[in-house]
Amino acid sequence: MANYSDIIGHEDIVKHFKNSIELGKVSHAYIFNGEKSSGKRTLASVVAKSLQCEEGGPDPCGKCRSCLQTESGNQPDIIWVNHEKPNIISVDEVREQIVNDVDLKPYSSRYKIYIVPDAQLMNPQAQNALLKTLEEPPEYAIILLLANGIGKFLPTVLSRCIILNFKPVEPLHVVEYLTTNLEVDQRKARFCADFAQGNLGKAIRLAISPEYNELLEDSVRILRRIQDMDMEDVIAAVKNLGKYKLDVTDYMDIMTMWFRDILMVKISNSPNKLLFKDDYSVLKKQASMMSYEGVEEVIRALNKVKVRLEANVNFDIAMELLLLTIKENMK
Ligand SMILES: [Zn+2]
Question: Global pTM?
Protein backbone atom coordinates (compact mmCIF):
# COMPACT_ATOMS: atom_id res chain seq x y z
CA MET A 1 0.00 0.00 0.00
CA ALA A 2 1.08 3.49 -0.80
CA ASN A 3 2.84 6.07 1.33
CA TYR A 4 3.35 9.75 0.64
CA SER A 5 6.58 8.92 -1.19
CA ASP A 6 4.57 6.85 -3.68
CA ILE A 7 2.29 9.74 -4.62
CA ILE A 8 3.24 11.16 -8.02
CA GLY A 9 2.51 14.89 -8.26
CA HIS A 10 0.01 16.65 -5.94
CA GLU A 11 2.93 18.00 -3.92
CA ASP A 12 0.91 20.92 -2.56
CA ILE A 13 -1.79 18.64 -1.15
CA VAL A 14 0.75 16.29 0.42
CA LYS A 15 2.51 19.30 1.96
CA HIS A 16 -0.79 20.66 3.25
CA PHE A 17 -1.52 17.46 5.18
CA LYS A 18 2.03 16.94 6.43
CA ASN A 19 2.02 20.49 7.82
CA SER A 20 -1.46 20.13 9.33
CA ILE A 21 -0.49 16.88 11.06
CA GLU A 22 2.75 18.35 12.39
CA LEU A 23 1.00 21.45 13.70
CA GLY A 24 -1.94 19.42 14.98
CA LYS A 25 -4.30 21.57 12.94
CA VAL A 26 -6.31 19.09 10.92
CA SER A 27 -9.72 20.27 9.77
CA HIS A 28 -12.93 18.30 10.00
CA ALA A 29 -13.93 18.29 6.35
CA TYR A 30 -12.12 18.28 3.02
CA ILE A 31 -13.17 18.01 -0.59
CA PHE A 32 -10.64 16.32 -2.89
CA ASN A 33 -11.62 17.79 -6.22
CA GLY A 34 -10.15 16.14 -9.31
CA GLU A 35 -11.13 14.24 -12.41
CA LYS A 36 -11.65 10.49 -12.49
CA SER A 37 -8.47 8.45 -11.91
CA SER A 38 -6.44 11.50 -10.90
CA GLY A 39 -5.38 9.75 -7.68
CA LYS A 40 -7.96 10.93 -5.14
CA ARG A 41 -8.56 7.53 -3.54
CA THR A 42 -4.88 6.69 -3.27
CA LEU A 43 -4.09 10.00 -1.65
CA ALA A 44 -7.12 9.78 0.66
CA SER A 45 -6.00 6.37 1.91
CA VAL A 46 -2.48 7.64 2.59
CA VAL A 47 -3.85 10.70 4.40
CA ALA A 48 -6.11 8.50 6.53
CA LYS A 49 -3.24 6.13 7.25
CA SER A 50 -0.96 8.96 8.38
CA LEU A 51 -3.64 10.61 10.52
CA GLN A 52 -4.28 7.33 12.34
CA CYS A 53 -0.64 6.23 12.68
CA GLU A 54 0.18 5.62 16.33
CA GLU A 55 3.61 7.21 15.91
CA GLY A 56 1.91 10.53 15.18
CA GLY A 57 4.52 11.75 12.68
CA PRO A 58 3.64 13.36 9.37
CA ASP A 59 4.58 10.14 7.54
CA PRO A 60 2.82 6.87 8.39
CA CYS A 61 5.29 4.49 10.09
CA GLY A 62 3.99 1.38 8.35
CA LYS A 63 4.65 -0.74 11.44
CA CYS A 64 2.16 0.16 14.16
CA ARG A 65 -1.10 -1.69 14.65
CA SER A 66 -3.10 1.04 12.91
CA CYS A 67 -0.81 1.17 9.86
CA LEU A 68 -0.94 -2.63 9.53
CA GLN A 69 -4.73 -2.60 9.88
CA THR A 70 -4.97 0.14 7.25
CA GLU A 71 -2.80 -1.82 4.85
CA SER A 72 -4.99 -4.89 5.18
CA GLY A 73 -8.15 -2.78 4.80
CA ASN A 74 -9.30 -3.47 8.37
CA GLN A 75 -8.78 -0.20 10.20
CA PRO A 76 -12.11 0.11 12.06
CA ASP A 77 -11.84 3.91 12.30
CA ILE A 78 -11.35 4.48 8.58
CA ILE A 79 -14.76 4.15 7.00
CA TRP A 80 -15.24 4.06 3.25
CA VAL A 81 -18.80 5.15 2.52
CA ASN A 82 -20.41 3.09 -0.24
CA HIS A 83 -23.63 3.41 -2.20
CA GLU A 84 -25.89 0.93 -3.93
CA LYS A 85 -27.16 2.77 -7.01
CA PRO A 86 -24.50 3.77 -9.53
CA ASN A 87 -25.57 7.39 -9.96
CA ILE A 88 -26.73 8.54 -6.56
CA ILE A 89 -25.73 8.57 -2.92
CA SER A 90 -29.00 8.62 -1.02
CA VAL A 91 -29.95 10.35 2.20
CA ASP A 92 -30.38 6.95 3.86
CA GLU A 93 -26.87 5.92 2.95
CA VAL A 94 -25.44 9.15 4.37
CA ARG A 95 -27.52 8.78 7.57
CA GLU A 96 -26.66 5.12 8.12
CA GLN A 97 -22.98 5.28 7.33
CA ILE A 98 -22.06 8.75 8.60
CA VAL A 99 -24.61 10.80 10.53
CA ASN A 100 -25.86 8.02 12.83
CA ASP A 101 -22.41 6.52 13.21
CA VAL A 102 -20.34 9.59 13.95
CA ASP A 103 -21.43 10.00 17.57
CA LEU A 104 -19.94 6.62 18.47
CA LYS A 105 -16.38 7.28 19.63
CA PRO A 106 -13.45 5.90 17.62
CA TYR A 107 -12.87 2.22 18.21
CA SER A 108 -9.12 2.33 18.72
CA SER A 109 -7.65 5.43 17.08
CA ARG A 110 -7.36 9.16 17.54
CA TYR A 111 -9.76 9.98 14.72
CA LYS A 112 -12.76 8.56 13.00
CA ILE A 113 -12.28 9.15 9.29
CA TYR A 114 -15.07 8.92 6.74
CA ILE A 115 -14.04 8.75 3.08
CA VAL A 116 -16.82 9.33 0.55
CA PRO A 117 -15.82 8.44 -3.05
CA ASP A 118 -17.96 10.01 -5.79
CA ALA A 119 -19.31 12.48 -3.23
CA GLN A 120 -20.71 14.62 -6.06
CA LEU A 121 -23.41 11.93 -6.33
CA MET A 122 -24.96 12.94 -3.00
CA ASN A 123 -28.34 14.42 -3.81
CA PRO A 124 -29.42 17.63 -2.02
CA GLN A 125 -31.26 15.67 0.71
CA ALA A 126 -28.16 13.59 1.37
CA GLN A 127 -26.04 16.74 1.52
CA ASN A 128 -28.47 18.39 3.91
CA ALA A 129 -28.31 15.34 6.15
CA LEU A 130 -24.51 15.55 6.12
CA LEU A 131 -24.61 19.25 6.86
CA LYS A 132 -25.54 18.66 10.49
CA THR A 133 -22.35 16.64 10.96
CA LEU A 134 -20.29 19.21 9.07
CA GLU A 135 -21.64 22.00 11.25
CA GLU A 136 -21.09 20.32 14.61
CA PRO A 137 -18.58 17.54 14.11
CA PRO A 138 -17.33 15.62 17.14
CA GLU A 139 -13.71 16.50 17.93
CA TYR A 140 -12.43 13.22 16.44
CA ALA A 141 -14.39 13.24 13.15
CA ILE A 142 -12.79 13.87 9.77
CA ILE A 143 -14.69 13.67 6.51
CA LEU A 144 -12.97 13.38 3.14
CA LEU A 145 -15.31 13.97 0.21
CA LEU A 146 -13.80 12.80 -3.10
CA ALA A 147 -15.44 14.42 -6.10
CA ASN A 148 -14.91 15.07 -9.79
CA GLY A 149 -16.22 18.64 -9.75
CA ILE A 150 -17.78 20.77 -7.06
CA GLY A 151 -20.71 22.13 -9.10
CA LYS A 152 -23.24 19.76 -7.53
CA PHE A 153 -22.47 20.67 -3.92
CA LEU A 154 -24.73 22.95 -1.91
CA PRO A 155 -23.05 26.24 -1.01
CA THR A 156 -23.63 25.42 2.65
CA VAL A 157 -21.62 22.20 2.27
CA LEU A 158 -18.84 23.90 0.31
CA SER A 159 -18.48 26.61 2.94
CA ARG A 160 -17.76 23.99 5.63
CA CYS A 161 -15.06 22.16 3.67
CA ILE A 162 -11.48 22.85 2.70
CA ILE A 163 -11.32 22.34 -1.06
CA LEU A 164 -8.14 20.75 -2.38
CA ASN A 165 -7.84 20.74 -6.17
CA PHE A 166 -5.96 17.94 -7.92
CA LYS A 167 -3.79 19.48 -10.59
CA PRO A 168 -2.46 17.62 -13.63
CA VAL A 169 0.81 15.76 -13.01
CA GLU A 170 3.83 16.92 -15.06
CA PRO A 171 4.08 14.72 -18.21
CA LEU A 172 7.76 14.10 -17.43
CA HIS A 173 6.83 12.58 -14.07
CA VAL A 174 4.21 10.42 -15.74
CA VAL A 175 6.75 9.16 -18.31
CA GLU A 176 9.24 8.45 -15.54
CA TYR A 177 6.66 6.51 -13.55
CA LEU A 178 5.58 4.42 -16.55
CA THR A 179 9.11 3.59 -17.68
CA THR A 180 10.56 2.79 -14.25
CA ASN A 181 7.63 1.24 -12.38
CA LEU A 182 5.81 -0.46 -15.23
CA GLU A 183 8.69 -0.96 -17.67
CA VAL A 184 6.80 0.70 -20.51
CA ASP A 185 9.10 1.72 -23.38
CA GLN A 186 9.88 5.42 -23.83
CA ARG A 187 7.87 5.96 -27.00
CA LYS A 188 4.71 4.41 -25.64
CA ALA A 189 5.18 6.10 -22.26
CA ARG A 190 5.34 9.46 -23.97
CA PHE A 191 2.18 8.79 -25.95
CA CYS A 192 0.34 7.67 -22.80
CA ALA A 193 1.53 10.72 -20.85
CA ASP A 194 0.48 13.13 -23.61
CA PHE A 195 -2.83 11.39 -24.04
CA ALA A 196 -3.64 11.41 -20.33
CA GLN A 197 -2.78 15.09 -19.95
CA GLY A 198 -1.54 14.83 -16.41
CA ASN A 199 -3.98 12.15 -15.27
CA LEU A 200 -1.70 9.40 -13.98
CA GLY A 201 -4.44 6.79 -13.57
CA LYS A 202 -5.51 7.27 -17.17
CA ALA A 203 -1.92 7.01 -18.40
CA ILE A 204 -1.41 3.78 -16.46
CA ARG A 205 -4.62 2.30 -17.83
CA LEU A 206 -3.62 3.11 -21.38
CA ALA A 207 -0.16 1.66 -20.80
CA ILE A 208 -1.23 -1.66 -19.30
CA SER A 209 -4.84 -2.42 -20.27
CA PRO A 210 -5.12 -4.44 -23.50
CA GLU A 211 -8.81 -3.56 -23.77
CA TYR A 212 -8.12 0.13 -23.55
CA ASN A 213 -5.51 -0.20 -26.28
CA GLU A 214 -7.95 -2.04 -28.50
CA LEU A 215 -10.53 0.68 -27.94
CA LEU A 216 -7.96 3.28 -28.91
CA GLU A 217 -7.05 1.44 -32.09
CA ASP A 218 -10.68 0.83 -33.07
CA SER A 219 -11.59 4.46 -32.44
CA VAL A 220 -8.69 5.75 -34.50
CA ARG A 221 -9.58 3.33 -37.29
CA ILE A 222 -13.05 4.94 -37.46
CA LEU A 223 -11.70 8.48 -37.25
CA ARG A 224 -9.26 7.84 -40.11
CA ARG A 225 -12.02 7.09 -42.59
CA ILE A 226 -14.97 8.91 -41.14
CA GLN A 227 -15.32 11.20 -44.18
CA ASP A 228 -15.97 8.14 -46.37
CA MET A 229 -18.51 6.47 -44.09
CA ASP A 230 -22.23 6.42 -44.79
CA MET A 231 -24.97 6.19 -42.18
CA GLU A 232 -24.91 2.39 -42.14
CA ASP A 233 -21.16 2.33 -41.59
CA VAL A 234 -21.60 4.83 -38.77
CA ILE A 235 -24.19 2.69 -37.00
CA ALA A 236 -22.11 -0.45 -37.39
CA ALA A 237 -19.05 1.35 -36.08
CA VAL A 238 -20.91 2.57 -33.03
CA LYS A 239 -22.24 -0.92 -32.31
CA ASN A 240 -18.68 -2.16 -32.46
CA LEU A 241 -17.43 0.49 -30.02
CA GLY A 242 -20.27 -0.43 -27.66
CA LYS A 243 -18.75 -3.87 -27.11
CA TYR A 244 -16.08 -2.32 -24.90
CA LYS A 245 -17.46 -2.11 -21.43
CA LEU A 246 -15.24 0.81 -20.55
CA ASP A 247 -16.10 4.19 -19.21
CA VAL A 248 -18.11 6.05 -21.84
CA THR A 249 -15.98 9.15 -21.51
CA ASP A 250 -12.95 7.24 -22.81
CA TYR A 251 -14.36 7.35 -26.36
CA MET A 252 -14.87 11.08 -26.04
CA ASP A 253 -11.33 11.64 -24.82
CA ILE A 254 -9.84 9.77 -27.77
CA MET A 255 -11.97 11.70 -30.26
CA THR A 256 -11.28 15.02 -28.59
CA MET A 257 -7.54 14.41 -28.85
CA TRP A 258 -7.92 13.55 -32.52
CA PHE A 259 -9.74 16.79 -33.31
CA ARG A 260 -7.30 18.79 -31.23
CA ASP A 261 -4.63 17.37 -33.49
CA ILE A 262 -6.62 18.47 -36.55
CA LEU A 263 -6.82 21.96 -35.09
CA MET A 264 -3.07 21.87 -34.42
CA VAL A 265 -2.39 20.86 -38.03
CA LYS A 266 -4.53 23.76 -39.24
CA ILE A 267 -2.62 26.19 -37.04
CA SER A 268 0.96 24.99 -37.37
CA ASN A 269 1.04 22.61 -40.32
CA SER A 270 3.68 20.52 -38.60
CA PRO A 271 3.59 17.05 -37.00
CA ASN A 272 5.82 17.97 -34.06
CA LYS A 273 3.24 18.66 -31.42
CA LEU A 274 0.71 16.06 -32.47
CA LEU A 275 -0.42 13.16 -30.32
CA PHE A 276 -1.25 11.00 -33.33
CA LYS A 277 1.99 11.74 -35.16
CA ASP A 278 1.82 8.47 -37.09
CA ASP A 279 -1.42 9.64 -38.70
CA TYR A 280 -0.07 12.99 -39.87
CA SER A 281 -1.07 12.52 -43.50
CA VAL A 282 -4.65 11.58 -42.59
CA LEU A 283 -4.93 14.46 -40.13
CA LYS A 284 -3.62 16.83 -42.79
CA LYS A 285 -6.18 15.63 -45.29
CA GLN A 286 -9.03 15.99 -42.79
CA ALA A 287 -7.76 19.40 -41.69
CA SER A 288 -8.03 20.58 -45.29
CA MET A 289 -11.65 19.39 -45.35
CA MET A 290 -12.66 21.31 -42.24
CA SER A 291 -13.00 24.96 -41.36
CA TYR A 292 -11.79 26.31 -38.02
CA GLU A 293 -15.42 26.79 -37.01
CA GLY A 294 -16.16 23.21 -38.05
CA VAL A 295 -13.39 21.79 -35.84
CA GLU A 296 -14.54 23.93 -32.95
CA GLU A 297 -18.13 22.81 -33.42
CA VAL A 298 -17.05 19.18 -33.30
CA ILE A 299 -15.01 19.72 -30.13
CA ARG A 300 -18.00 21.48 -28.56
CA ALA A 301 -20.27 18.60 -29.60
CA LEU A 302 -17.83 16.12 -28.04
CA ASN A 303 -17.95 17.93 -24.72
CA LYS A 304 -21.72 18.05 -24.85
CA VAL A 305 -22.00 14.31 -25.54
CA LYS A 306 -19.60 13.60 -22.69
CA VAL A 307 -21.88 15.44 -20.28
CA ARG A 308 -24.95 13.69 -21.68
CA LEU A 309 -23.40 10.25 -21.42
CA GLU A 310 -22.44 10.92 -17.83
CA ALA A 311 -26.14 11.62 -17.27
CA ASN A 312 -26.88 8.18 -18.75
CA VAL A 313 -28.33 9.17 -22.12
CA ASN A 314 -28.58 6.26 -24.59
CA PHE A 315 -25.06 5.56 -25.84
CA ASP A 316 -25.89 4.54 -29.43
CA ILE A 317 -28.06 7.60 -30.09
CA ALA A 318 -25.58 10.04 -28.59
CA MET A 319 -22.72 8.53 -30.58
CA GLU A 320 -24.62 8.43 -33.88
CA LEU A 321 -25.57 12.09 -33.56
CA LEU A 322 -22.00 12.92 -32.73
CA LEU A 323 -20.55 11.06 -35.70
CA LEU A 324 -23.08 12.82 -37.94
CA THR A 325 -22.00 16.20 -36.58
CA ILE A 326 -18.45 15.24 -37.39
CA LYS A 327 -19.36 14.18 -40.93
CA GLU A 328 -21.32 17.39 -41.55
CA ASN A 329 -18.30 19.47 -40.68
CA MET A 330 -15.92 17.48 -42.84
CA LYS A 331 -16.60 18.15 -46.50
ZN1 LIG B 1 1.96 3.75 12.02
Answer: 0.81
